[in-house]
Amino acid sequence: MSFFVFSALMVEMSSDMIDALHVHNQARIKAVGPHRPSLIWSDSLASAAHSWAVHLANKNVLKHSSDSGQGENLFRRIGTDDTTFAMAARAWVDEMPIYQGEVIPVGDFEAYGHYTQVIWPGTREVGMASAKSKRGWTYVVARYSPPGNYVNQTAWS
């Protein structure tokens, strides 16, 4: 276990949390555009992510929350117990070659929207959680603050 000190509060982080945070921050370092500060882990965002992950697992559906006021990435996988936060984060970062700096449109930008949330310049915190459905799906939810993916803005500026 590793310990990180944020604002004089000691938070115990699992190796999966650390790995997922590393995946996020490496993507932010490599992203085109302005310097992006490293994200820090937020227990309150992780708690919100957990509530939504449980909801998704209970409903057995992959659907974004409409009223969280936070950025959100979703991931699901079936039939295995080894789904990790880092695996989900890598899937989101793998969208990087698709994004070419265009402004976020009204409507569908699913092909790269997970990646742009990961690298969004104004985002400072992330928290993640997962839940398993009775049908064998593992749902991973990441919440971000401040949120990104603002319409008519680009993740590169």
TrEMBL record:
Which domain of life does the protein's organism represent? Eukaryota
- Which Pfam families does its entry note? CAP
InterPro entries referenced in this protein's UniProt entry, alphabetically: Allrgn_V5/Tpx1_CS, CAP_dom, CAP_sf, CRISP-related, SCP_GAPR1-like, V5_allergen-like
Q: State the PANTHER family in the record.
A: CYSTEINE-RICH SECRETORY PROTEIN-RELATED
Which Gene3D superfamilies does this entry report, sorted A to Z?
CAP
What name appears for this protein in its UniProt entry? SCP domain-containing protein
Note the PROSITE patterns from the entry: CRISP_1
Domain annotation SCP: ranges: 15-152
Where is it found, in Gene Ontology cellular component terms? Answer: extracellular region
Question: Which source organism does the UniProt entry give?
Answer: Erysiphe pulchra
